[in-house]
Design goal:
Elements (H helix, E strand, L loop, with lengths): L7 H10 L3 H14 L12 H18 L1 H11 L3 H5 L6 H26 L1
Helix pairs in contact: 2-6, 3-4, 3-6
Length: about 120
């Protein structure tokens, strides 16, 4: 049964521990490109850098490309209810939380593919 990690650091640690970190990067790159938001995280990116760069990308999208940001969430299939629960008063915190929701959904996809294929 899939149980989502409680935060980004734990999620990335779990992905590395299950040897699925590279698959997670591939999934993120794939979905961002599907949403026409070209992102190309190298396979050599560290978990810390991935966390930082994803957060920055989401922050910039919320601030400057809101329609594309909403499309990205739709393509990735981030639960709308989870996004609506977030407090949008601080954009930095909001973008960090959304980046976690994106990672969580992408991790779920990778985990299920690995478990049931």
């Amino acid at each position: 049964m899939f149980i989502a990690p409680l935060n980004t650091d734990l999620l990335l640690l779990e992905a590395e521990g299950e040897s699925l970190y590279l698959k997670l990067i591939e999934q993120i790159n794939k979905d961002f490109n599907l949403a026409n938001e070209g992102i190309d995280f190298p396979m050599s990116i560290t978990a810390k850098e991935l966390k930082i760069q994803l957060h920055e990308k989401v922050y910039r999208m919320i601030q400057y490309k809101f329609a594309e940001y909403l499309n990205l969430l739709y393509i990735i299939d981030v639960a709308e209810e989870e996004v609506k629960k977030l407090d949008g008063s601080d954009l930095v915190i909001l973008s960090e939380q959304v980046a976690f929701l994106i990672l969580k959904r992408e991790w779920q996809k990778v985990w299920f593919k690995n478990k049931y294929r």
